[in-house]
């Protein structure tokens, strides 16, 4: 019975850790991507705004990585997701996911760089865990920083332009 209670408490603690980590990153990322990013692009334009947001993204992601390594806690489940690479079960979707994760590093890198920030991309793609940034990790981080910010800058600028166009069309 003691082992059962211990497992329940461990599971409960792990779920709390993941919930807090994912929620905090989601709130911070949402405010950054959907409030601050469009505002800066609107105020400073596509070039200056894109540069400002790339610098801010660099700072936020480096600080996130430092905290992630310092805490030595997998509060986003990244290390658990890395474990899927070794899946050898009978489920087709699991085997397909494993195959993609192992064979198509550039596709995974591009997907993560566009969908997530450089912190998550680098934490997922680096070898080992909580071990700082190697030269390879810095290349991944830099590449993801550039790809992600170019994507978001263009997306925000396009959204703002479409909104302004619709606003003018509706008022005239």
Question: Please, could you describe this protein's structure?
Answer:
- This protein has 172 residues and is mostly helical.
- The protein has one domain.
- Helices cover 83% and strands 0% of the residues.
- The protein is built from 6 helices and no strands.
- It has helices at residues 2-71, 78-82, 92-103, 105-115, 118-125, 135-171.
- It is globular.
- It starts with a helix and ends with a helix.
Order of helices and strands: HHHHHH
Q: Supply Rg.
A: 19 Å
Question: Mind summarizing the main beta sheet?
Answer: none
Helical fraction equals over 70%
What general outline do the C-alpha atoms trace?
Answer: globular
Cα separation of the termini: 73 Å
Supply the number of structural domains: 1
What's the pLDDT, averaged over the residues?
83
Spans of at least 5 consecutive residues with low confidence: none
Fraction in beta strands? under 5%
Number of strands: 0
